[in-house]
Structure formats: structure tokens, C-alpha cells
Amino acid sequence: MYELEKRCHQYPITMMLIIICVIVYIVSFILYGQEMNVYEALAFGGYNPLYVDYYHEYYRLLTSNFIHFGIFHLLMNCYSLYNLGSFIESFMDRMNYIIVLFVSAIATTGIPYVLYLFNGFGSNSVSGGISGVIFGLIGAIIALAMIYHNIFDDVLRQLAPSIIIMLILSLTVSSISMSGHVCGMIGGFVATYILMNTMNNQRQYYN
Questions:
Q1: What pLDDT score was predicted for residue 198?
Q2: Of 60, 69, 87, 89, whose CA–CA distance to 21 is shortest?
Q3: pTM over 0.85
Q4: In this structure, what are the phi and psi dihedrals at residue 151, rounded to the nearest 5 degrees?
Q5: Least buried of 73, 133, 154, 175, by fewest C-beta within 10 Å?
Q6: CB 38 within 8 A of CB 86
Q7: What is the pLDDT of residues 120-151, one digit of tens each?
Q8: What is the per-residue pLDDT across 19-35, written as a single tens digit (0 to 9) for each?
């Protein structure tokens, strides 16, 4: 218990996200059992562009990030979120970190939704999970490596094999949303790049 309290104090935003995911999974477990099918996921806030477009259920763009289809899905995502999130949270100030997380979450579903409006992309799919946000954190690390070469270059090299493996899995495993991962990464990269450059420019102005 002491160790958990220590982690919550050190990385409050990351731990809060993990706790939300766990609580949501517990509720889904009570309602549907250990694993949800796509129909149960839809009822529980999963993302499908038709439901957003026709029924104006825009909350799905956010709530889908917190549902998980099974315990293995949850554990893998929470483990990755903790490892990446705690690292980035220790570097960024709290508000910037929250913005990066939020933009990553919205980009995960928002960009595919825009594509759907243009060409019907993903109309038959149901997605959920916080892996898009995890990829957003990967995008954030790439942006940080571009801005702060001397600090993050080594980190990016160490993460490169894992990033490549995750991208390959996204491409080859049919149940994984490649579009959500890539869009989350784009959101995290863009948000971090803009925020960090803005912060650096403000520092230079005041100095």
C-alpha cells in the first residue's frame, strides 16, 4: 500500500489514468464478464463512427479510450502506460502532460472519425482501449528527442525496437486498431512539439 501511495504521489496523472481504466474494467466485468464482445463494447461506450455520426454520441470519442475488452488487454496497456507515462510526467509540467494525454486520446478516435466523414472509414469497426494514448506518449518522446537531442536521443534509441514491434503487431494482428495507434501517435507528437517549442520561445523572450 505504501508503494502504491508513493507512486500516486510521484506520478499522479499517470496513476489516475490507470486507476480509471481499472475501475471501468471492474464495472464491465460485473456487467459482461471477463471479456466483452463488440456489441457489449458498444453499449459500454466503445467507438464506432456510425454511432457518433447518426446518434451524435460524441462522448464515445473519449470514453472508448478507457474500456478494455479483456484482462490481458487491460494489463498490457496499464503496464505500457505506467512505463511511458511516468517517464514523461517526470519531465513535463502537469498541465502540458494533461494536454498531451487529452490530445492523444481525442486524436485516437477523432482523426479516424474525420476520415469516416470523407470516405466511410471504419464504419464496421468497434474500438476501445488506452493504447492510442500510449502511442501518443511514444509520439511525445519522438517530439522531445527532436527538440532536446542531448536528453532524449538515447531514450528514443532504447525504445525504438519496442516501437517497431508495436507497429508491426498493429499491422499484422487484425483485432488491433492500427489507425487508432497511428492517430494517437500523431496527436501526441504534434501536441508535444507545439507545447515544448512554445515554452522554449517564451523562455527566450523573457530572458
A1: 86
A2: 69
A3: yes
A4: -95, -40
A5: 175
A6: no
A7: 898 999 999 999 999 999 999 999 988 887 77
A8: 999 999 999 999 999 99
User: Would the pLDDT of 174 be above 80?
Assistant: no
| Cell (9 digits) for 2 | 505504501
Whether the Cβ atoms of residue 60 and residue 109 lie closer than 8 Å to each other: yes
Q: Which residues 6+ apart lie within 8 Å of 184 measured at CB?
A: 104, 105, 107, 108, 131, 132, 133, 134, 135, 136, 139
Q: How far apart are CA 150 and CA 154, in angstroms?
A: 8
The predicted structure's pLDDT at residue 102: 98
- Convert the chain into a string of H (helix), E (strand) and C (coil): CHHHHHHHHHCHHHHHHHHHHHHHHHHHHHHHCCCCCHHHHHHCCCECHHHHHHHCCCCHHHHHHHCCCCHHHHHHHHHHHHHHHHHHHCCCCHHHHHHHHHHHHHHHHHHHHHHHHHHCCCCCCCECCCHHHHHHHHHHHHHHHHHCHHHHHHHHHHHHHHHHHHHHHHHHCCCCCHHHHHHHHHHHHHHHHHHHHHHHHHHHHHC
